[in-house]
Amino acid sequence: MASRSLAIFLTAVAAATTLAGAFAPDAARHTAARRGAVAPLSMGLFDSFTKAFSNEEYGAPPDAIKAAARHILVPSKEEAEAVLGEIGKGETSFAALAGQYSTCPSKSSGGSLGSFSPGTMVKEFDEVVFSPKTKIGEVMGPIQTQFGYHLLVVDKRTGGSDWY
Length: 164
Fold this sequence. Notes:
Blueprint: H1 2-23, H2 26-35, H3 44-54, E1 66-74, H4 77-89, H5 94-101, E2 112-116, H6 123-129, E3 139-145, E4 148-158
Antiparallel strand pairs: 1-2, 1-4, 3-4
């Protein structure tokens, strides 16, 4: 019984070797045949799946669009313009003025809002922060939102486009 199982096994191995050789490219098959070995099995269908999921043709995805900004939030347009006048004098830093005048909790960190993506802030704010016309480091405003009037400075923008 054991010899019969061994015979069946050897027959299956021989058939698999012959079948594998049939799928090898011609040059590989002839070279393998001369050496008495068979080239690795290469099946177009499965190779296509592997290639499709390997993502070798594409680079890494682009960085997410983000910005880092600081702001001073005040309740009225008049106050915003008064703070803007203080900034224009150049005697006090934006961070110090944020600590002095802003009604936002970010005033404790100089008005810094950290890094955020489009859609995180209110629409009016996002339109200025992510606008190609807004220059990095330039004070913008006053900008009216549901919270009051903002003076803002975009510190950094990344990802998404060449216009930054």
